[in-house]
């Protein structure tokens, strides 16, 4: 619609969303969390008219009491890379361990090229080599992921907006309408040809990635790419429509593991988040602070602390234990199958090694 276009095109012209009651619980993993950045990002709209004070105290306890009061029915989560680092997924920007720092071996003209759609269409190999290394499914969701699942199970989660492409939200049990993968997902793949756009499953793509075949469309021969958002591609439409729909009725916004700053696949400040302007200046500690709560800890610790205040701690611990055991038992099964396969092809593999 025209309205949506406007929201995407022009920040300054878009109407501020009326958000009377909501709280920002900024729970971030890194000390480098930029409060100033968030302040400026959120200042476009809500700062105009202060909303009603809903927390009796700007602390995690205050948030817990608000949730338990029954007045907080629509919770939105916004999550980023920080919620997955404890699962072992490398953060894109950490020096040394960060993804970009480990890209030299691919001889890229510049690191971001690996996620540039035009570069990919000519040189898809580095991306698929990297995908093999980072392939989702080798990692387990964290306490923080399961905390969101608990919000869902208790009927409190309106939606989770994730900047991550690791699919751990889905593994933890968020699905369909629960989730907006702002930077796309490995869950599905499509032929890159605009005329074709044939869809491929996660299993199909996984087989290609691990067989070191460059995935090609079986209808038209073009490249097939996981549906993650590359530089030069648009964010999914659902991202914009859901934000416009969800934020006006949001009672509590929980931000975890992200400073909302530049991210690997698309920058939300460039492509949407800042433009839609869902917030108002965040204020955690001034004299005028009435709404926003910052809890600085790891995401897992923060979620566990909130769960404890809500009386959900044991339930959450059990969920994590149960779900991880389930994933482990599947992994063991897969490994057994893989061992069986490698035994039967072992002799052949040995031969290949000698000739190579
Ligand atoms: Zn095709």
TrEMBL record:
<protein>
    <recommendedName>
        <fullName>NAD-dependent protein deacetylase</fullName>
        <ecNumber>2.3.1.286</ecNumber>
    </recommendedName>
</protein>
<dbReference type="GO" id="GO:0070403">
    <property type="term" value="F:NAD+ binding"/>
</dbReference>
<dbReference type="GO" id="GO:0008270">
    <property type="term" value="F:zinc ion binding"/>
</dbReference>
<comment type="similarity">
    <text>Belongs to the sirtuin family. Class I subfamily.</text>
</comment>
<dbReference type="InterPro" id="IPR026591">
    <property type="entry name" value="Sirtuin_cat_small_dom_sf"/>
</dbReference>
<dbReference type="InterPro" id="IPR026590">
    <property type="entry name" value="Ssirtuin_cat_dom"/>
</dbReference>
<keyword id="KW-0539">Nucleus</keyword>
<keyword id="KW-0520">NAD</keyword>
<dbReference type="GO" id="GO:0005634">
    <property type="term" value="C:nucleus"/>
</dbReference>
<feature type="binding site">
    <location>
        <position position="217"/>
    </location>
    <ligand>
        <name>Zn(2+)</name>
    </ligand>
</feature>
<feature type="binding site">
    <location>
        <position position="196"/>
    </location>
    <ligand>
        <name>Zn(2+)</name>
    </ligand>
</feature>
<dbReference type="GO" id="GO:0017136">
    <property type="term" value="F:histone deacetylase activity, NAD-dependent"/>
</dbReference>
<keyword id="KW-0808">Transferase</keyword>
<feature type="binding site">
    <location>
        <begin position="91"/>
        <end position="93"/>
    </location>
    <ligand>
        <name>NAD(+)</name>
    </ligand>
</feature>
<keyword id="KW-0479">Metal-binding</keyword>
<feature type="region of interest" description="Disordered">
    <location>
        <begin position="330"/>
        <end position="356"/>
    </location>
</feature>
<keyword id="KW-0862">Zinc</keyword>
<feature type="binding site">
    <location>
        <begin position="258"/>
        <end position="259"/>
    </location>
    <ligand>
        <name>NAD(+)</name>
    </ligand>
</feature>
<dbReference type="GO" id="GO:0051239">
    <property type="term" value="P:regulation of multicellular organismal process"/>
</dbReference>
<feature type="binding site">
    <location>
        <position position="191"/>
    </location>
    <ligand>
        <name>Zn(2+)</name>
    </ligand>
</feature>
<dbReference type="InterPro" id="IPR050134">
    <property type="entry name" value="NAD-dep_sirtuin_deacylases"/>
</dbReference>
<dbReference type="InterPro" id="IPR029035">
    <property type="entry name" value="DHS-like_NAD/FAD-binding_dom"/>
</dbReference>
<feature type="binding site">
    <location>
        <begin position="163"/>
        <end position="166"/>
    </location>
    <ligand>
        <name>NAD(+)</name>
    </ligand>
</feature>
<feature type="domain" description="Deacetylase sirtuin-type">
    <location>
        <begin position="53"/>
        <end position="313"/>
    </location>
</feature>
<comment type="function">
    <text>NAD-dependent protein deacetylase.</text>
</comment>
<dbReference type="Pfam" id="PF02146">
    <property type="entry name" value="SIR2"/>
</dbReference>
<dbReference type="InterPro" id="IPR017328">
    <property type="entry name" value="Sirtuin_class_I"/>
</dbReference>
<feature type="binding site">
    <location>
        <position position="299"/>
    </location>
    <ligand>
        <name>NAD(+)</name>
    </ligand>
</feature>
<feature type="active site" description="Proton acceptor">
    <location>
        <position position="183"/>
    </location>
</feature>
<dbReference type="GO" id="GO:0050793">
    <property type="term" value="P:regulation of developmental process"/>
</dbReference>
<dbReference type="InterPro" id="IPR003000">
    <property type="entry name" value="Sirtuin"/>
</dbReference>
<feature type="binding site">
    <location>
        <position position="220"/>
    </location>
    <ligand>
        <name>Zn(2+)</name>
    </ligand>
</feature>
<feature type="binding site">
    <location>
        <begin position="81"/>
        <end position="85"/>
    </location>
    <ligand>
        <name>NAD(+)</name>
    </ligand>
</feature>
């Amino acid at each position: 619609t025209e309205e949506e276009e406007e929201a995407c095109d022009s920040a300054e012209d878009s109407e501020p969303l009326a958000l009377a009651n909501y709280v920002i619980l900024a729970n971030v993993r890194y000390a480098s969390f930029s409060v100033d950045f968030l302040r400026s990002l959120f200042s476009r709209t809500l700062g105009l008219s202060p909303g009603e004070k809903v927390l009796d105290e700007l602390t995690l306890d205050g948030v817990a009491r608000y949730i338990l009061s029954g007045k907080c029915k629509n919770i939105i989560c916004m999550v980023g890379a920080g919620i997955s680092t404890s699962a072992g997924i490398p953060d894109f920007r950490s020096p040394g361990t960060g993804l970009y720092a480990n890209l030299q071996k691919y001889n890229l003209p510049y690191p971001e090229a690996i996620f540039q759609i035009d570069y990919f269409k000519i040189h898809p190999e580095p991306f698929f080599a990297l995908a093999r290394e980072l392939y989702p499914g080798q990692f387990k969701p964290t306490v923080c992921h399961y905390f969101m699942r608990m919000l869902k199970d208790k009927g409190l989660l309106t939606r989770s907006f994730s900047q991550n492409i690791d699919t751990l939200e889905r593994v933890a049990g968020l699905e369909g309408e629960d989730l907006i993968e702002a930077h796309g997902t490995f869950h599905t793949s499509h032929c890159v040809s605009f005329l074709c756009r044939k869809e491929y499953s996660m299993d199909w793509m996984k087989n290609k990635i691990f067989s070191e075949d460059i995935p090609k469309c079986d209808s038209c021969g073009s490249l097939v790419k996981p549906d993650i958002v590359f530089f030069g591609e648009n964010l999914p439409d659902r991202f914009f429509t859901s934000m416009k729909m969800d934020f006006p009725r949001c009672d509590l916004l929980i931000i975890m593991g992200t400073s909302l700053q530049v991210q690997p696949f698309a920058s939300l400040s460039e492509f949407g988040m800042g433009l839609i302007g869902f917030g108002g200046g965040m204020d955690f500690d001034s004299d005028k602070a009435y709404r926003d709560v910052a809890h600085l800890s790891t995401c897992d610790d923060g979620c566990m602390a909130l769960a404890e205040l809500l009386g959900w701690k044991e339930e959450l611990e059990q969920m994590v234990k149960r779900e991880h055991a389930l994933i482990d038992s599947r992994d063991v099964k897969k490994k057994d199958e893989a061992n069986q396969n490698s035994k039967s092809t072992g002799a052949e593999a040995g031969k290949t090694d000698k000739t190579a």
